[in-house]
Specification:
The protein is about 45% helix and about 15% strand. The strands form 2 sheets. A 7-stranded parallel beta sheet has the order 3-2-1-4-5-6-7, sandwiched between helices. Strands 10-9-8-11-12-13 form a 6-stranded parallel beta sheet, with helices on both faces. The radius of gyration is 21 Å and the shape is globular. It binds uridine-diphosphate-N-acetylglucosamine.
Length: about 400
Amino acid sequence: MTDEQWPSDLGPVVCVVGARPNFMKMAPILRAFGAHRPALPTLLLHTGQHYDKDMNDRLFADLRLPRPDINLEVGSATHAVQTAEVMKRFEPVLDSQRPSCVLVVGDVNSTLACALVCAKKDVPVVHVEAGLRSHDRAMPEEINRVLTDQIADRLYTTERSALANLTREGVAEERVCFVGNVMIDSLLANREFAQAPAKTLQIAGGDPAVIDDASGYGVVTLHRPSNVDRSDTLQALLAVLREVSDGLPLVFAMHPRTRANIERFGLGELLRSPRIVLLPPQGYLEMLGLLASAKLVLSDSGGLQEESTALGVPCLTIRENTERPITIEQGTNTLVGADPQAIRRGVDEILSGAGKSGRIPEFWDGRAAERIAADLSAWLLARHAQRVG
Ligand code: UD1
């Protein structure tokens, strides 16, 4: 098997990334495809949805992701325009590259846009992180998830609950393969390289003495439109963060959307405190270091719910629902919504020592990408043999 060659008439796997949370999922997949025998030929395509140094370049470097072979450079726009631009620019790539399949990860606009183009051109779609559902259609990511899974030919899931969601929506069970969590592959591979929190603060111009406090510190991120796009909601959230910081210093790594809205709504004063360290979006190794030593995480991110579970750090999720229920059932996650009282109560519980310590979910073992490589290779080769034979 080791000297087996990939058939020369079977095209590359086009691997699509667009936004920050895609990068940590794709890095282990590319490595596993390269290490598999026969190695799966790949082509890395970046849609350009995220493009800032902070949102893009630093993560590529930290995760040792190769330079994309193709960059569609779509940038920011309304959802419709962004999705349409990706689709327009992606179609000619399929014509010129003739891939064996297109692999998309997660639930961002780029994920759905590329999947949709494939569906109309009869190119197989492979979806990694399939079947997660918040059951909240007001969330743009939920629409992206449901539609991508309808289109996908091969679906890889991170937790067993995903299969029930998919079969309920009519997806045939044979298309679904439970492999575990590639985001945790990245976390485990990089943990030893994580940056010490004091150094991260120092480099970003924050005062490392703030987190020297014996009581530890909390990590905050916020970027969901439902939390940051309305002045009253954002104001209430920042006010409660300010209160929490009296008992626990906070390190707040701020998404550009949130920073812009705080400025637009004139809410900056609420965060002006020596107990709140404001940072720009952080690199992967910086964030990993901050998370690993944190007392708690307060966030509306999808990925942080999983990463804090893998690290055994209690996480309070500032959302009414989650598409990642295993982080609640087995992990360290608790939903607190945007309700200041629930947030205060959750923080108090953790600080009094009653926070969740959780356990590591099945297959969150650093080998999910390896399982995908083995399954996808067999699947593509079998399809190919059927076609040529
Ligand atoms: C996107 C994903 C979301 C993911 C998040 C992680 C969708 C629907 N949403 O949301 O699931 O959790 O990425 O960050 O795909 N901006 C910059 N620089 C950048 C990119 C964005 O300044 O490099 C600013 C722009 O003002 C832009 C805004 O952020 O309009 C939003 O960017 P966008 O890509 O539309 O969505 P995110 O909120 O980042």
